[in-house]
Records
---
Amino acid sequence: MYSQHLYSQVPGLRSPDRKSHWPNAEESSIHDHRPLYNLLTALTTTPHNIRTLDLSFHIHLLRDAASDPTRFSTFLAALAPITNLNLAVVTPPPEPNYIDDDFNYADASATSTASYKAVLRTGALGRLVSAARALHRLKLNLSPDGQRRSGHSPWRFDVPLSAYVGDAAADAAVWSGLRYLYLGCVDARADELAAFVAARRATLACVEFDRCALTRGQWAAVGAVVELGCARWRWMKQNNLAQVEPKARTVAVLPEVVESARAEGRDDVPVEVEADGIYFEAKDEMSTIMSGWDDE
């Protein structure tokens, strides 16, 4: 009851069945984070059993990590008990109303991109997301409108995976029980992403990459970890994936995936696979593949 009350009363907090993404413009602004912080303060000062949060906010809220660390620490504390996190960090294009005759749209767009990159490079988002140390489900989306599978991602942020997920990028003990992973409109290197997935291969069942780009490496290398390493995977989904490098004919399977399979007595995991035989691929389409496994 408490969580449903919060969903209906607090701008910036969305319930799963809410139809419109943003509150009515007359009621609140995406740049007004006071209602969200009021909620976060309540979550850290009032006993509750809430373990699921569905939040949307403008990326510039993350500047509070430097400008108002005390207030930002409230956000970190509020996420600590959360096990199911749906976070839409909105990265909108420049608003036409704020573009004058002497400053064209292209210049404004470049300024927005640089601003967003600078915020991400501070590591504030990674600190925030990894504050929830025991996640079972993570949906992290940095799309311009905050929506999943909506349009295209207009830019790359060129930051390491840790900028998005904090120390979970390198520490397998963080989110060791992760079962569901959705990443939207982020970019990373294939080796980072493959290692991140491989570290949670014992539990991951559902993996989705939405409008994501690889700044180095092959999507097939990431897909091979899921298909060959995640013994309980149920489905994978992709939407408009991209990569900088040309598609390779073959990709190496992560050594830890091969070694783990052999330790289990499996000889069906090769050290190298044909890229065309792996699901994840840089292409402009949306699709889903099911494994047939169902452990629920």
Note: The chain has a mean pLDDT of 85.
---
Amino acid sequence: MGIGPIILLVWFLLMISSIATGIVMAVVRGVGSLKWSAQTVLGTLLYYGFISAGLGVSEGVWTATSPGLLIALAVGGAGVALTIVGIRGLVRTRTADGQDGRTT
């Protein structure tokens, strides 16, 4: 078994866990948390850019300065950023009015 199917399996497991997290947070915090969960799921989907970049380089299709490689890495990086923003939104706590000196 090559490394390709293992990488895809890990990516599918990340997708499943991301979707499960969104469902759990919607139950625990309400429907309002779905906007953050959607960002996490979309970010995980965009991780595929890293898989494309890795496969393109390993097969010799792309070099280090190839535009396709740079675009794939940018898509993967955007996925990481979306995931971080989504997780940050899911784990933040809400404060009551005046508790921290600001109104929410």
Note: Residues 3-91 form one domain.
